[in-house]
Each structure stands twice: as structure tokens, then as C-alpha cells.
Write a structure and sequence with these properties.
Number of helices: 6
Largest sheet: none
Structural class: mainly alpha
Oligomer: single chain
Number of strands: 0
Order of helices and strands: HHHHHH
Radius of gyration: 20 Å
Distance between the termini: 19 Å
């Protein structure tokens, strides 16, 4: 029989309605600007990238959002190990879930970008470039987190084992996305001999759209995450209610 942790306060109380309204307005306005200016505005014609450089406004913020969400998820896993508060486990799970969503979008937009730049004329969508491969491995690691959770029925045991695994997973993130790819030959900016965010891939004129894009997608990630936590907590409450 499954056991549960003591009841926790509703996460709805954690964030005021004014803050939600402010974030919604900010995200809506910022991403509207990014989409319109990013797709319709003029863009510097850089070698190889040309018009595909517009993808920078969408592809890179996805991975930044994933990084932020995995850190949030790990923090709540750590706090769950300290407190056994079920809400912490729910927050860790939902942050990892939204991180996976942004990571999948990031890897798909990366595949599309590579197809029309690095692999143009080859009909390839994937060529096991180190950065691509490491990103795929990271997504598999977080996918295994959900497989692990689904195999344990006891609530507290599931939360405890998943939390330990989650702390391991977040440690791999900087190595897979930053440290290891920098030590290998790669076509992706940020590898050895190919610095990221230089004028070859982020011209000064693009920064007026790129930086708002990062903030806008961070806001969108937070918005989705908090809403997912609310829904998940309501589901937990409904599951704990005794049947009449």
C-alpha cells in the first residue's frame, strides 16, 4: 500500500496573482516581439548561416531554459531529501518534465539548423556531432528519470530514489552540454577552436532580439512549470481524498 508524506500547503499560495499577470504580460509581449522581429526583420548575412541564423533566437534559449529548469528540479529534489515534503517531489518532477519539453524542442530545432547549414546537400539530419550527441545523451538521462519513477509505487520511496537520481543527473548536465564538447572537434559553436556568441554566429545587431528571446523563453518556462505544479498538486489532492 502506498504511503504519502504529510499534507503540504497548496503551491497556489506561493505566487501572487499580480506576479502571474506581470509574467504573462511580459512573456506575451516579449515573445511576440521576438517572433515578429526574428522572422521578419533584417538579419546580417553571415557565412554559412545566412537566413538560418534566425534560428538562434529560438534554438539557444531552449537549451538555456532546460539548464535553468534542471537546476530548479535538482534543488527541489535536494529539499525533498531534507524534508520529505511531497510538494518538493512534485516540483522536482514537473521542472524536469518541462525541461524535457524544452530540450526536445531544442534538439529538433538544432537538427533542422544543421540540416540546412552543416549538412546542406547531403540529406543528413544527424551526423553524431559531439554537441548533438551529448545533448541526446542528456535527454536520455532525464528520460530514464521518468522511467525510474514509473517503476516505484510507494510515494516516499519513489521520491527519495528519484531525488538521488535527479541530483546525479544535474551534475552531468554541465559536462555534457559544455565541458566535454569543448574538448572535441565539432562544427557547433562553443567547441574547441570555435567560440560561441562571437561575431561569426551572433552579430551585434542580433543581440537586440536574442537577449529578449532568452528572457522571454525563461519566463515561458517558469509559467508552464508553475501551472504544471498547480495541476499536479490538485491531482495529488484528488488521489488522496477517501472514496465515499
Amino acid at each position: 500500500m502506498a504511503t504519502s508524506s504529510p499534507a503540504s500547503p497548496s503551491p497556489v499560495a506561493d505566487v501572487g496573482s499580480r506576479m502571474y499577470t506581470a509574467v504573462r504580460v511580459f512573456v506575451t509581449l516579449t515573445l511576440t516581439y521576438v517572433i515578429v522581429a526574428g522572422l521578419l526583420g533584417t538579419i546580417p548575412q553571415m557565412s554559412i548561416l545566412e537566413e538560418t541564423a534566425r534560428n538562434l533566437y529560438f534554438h539557444v534559449p531552449m537549451w538555456f531554459s532546460l539548464m535553468g529548469l534542471t537546476v530548479v528540479s535538482a534543488y527541489h529534489s535536494f529539499r525533498f531529501l531534507q524534508t520529505r515534503d511531497l510538494l518538493r517531489d512534485v516540483r522536482a518532477r514537473e521542472a524536469a518534465r518541462v525541461a524535457m519539453l524544452f530540450g526536445l524542442i531544442g534538439i529538433v530545432t538544432g537538427m533542422m539548423w544543421a540540416r540546412f547549414t552543416w549538412y546542406e546537400g547531403t540529406n543528413k539530419w544527424w551526423n553524431f556531432d559531439p554537441k548533438q550527441s551529448m545533448a541526446a545523451i542528456l535527454l536520455l538521462i532525464y528520460g530514464a528519470y521518468f522511467v525510474l519513477r514509473s517503476g516505484i509505487d510507494i510515494v516516499e520511496k519513489r521520491g527519495r530514489i528519484a531525488a538521488v537520481y535527479n541530483l546525479f543527473a544535474v551534475v552531468t548536465m554541465p559536462f555534457l552540454l559544455y565541458v566535454l564538447p569543448r574538448q572535441m572537434d565539432s562544427l557547433h559553436p562553443g567547441a574547441e577552436g570555435s567560440p560561441a556568441f562571437s561575431q561569426t554566429d551572433l552579430a551585434p545587431a542580433m543581440r537586440w532580439i536574442f537577449y529578449p528571446a532568452v528572457l522571454g523563453f525563461f519566463g515561458l518556462a517558469w509559467w508552464i512549470y508553475t501551472q504544471r505544479v498547480r495541476v499536479a498538486w490538485l491531482e495529488e489532492d484528488a488521489r488522496d481524498e477517501p472514496e465515499l
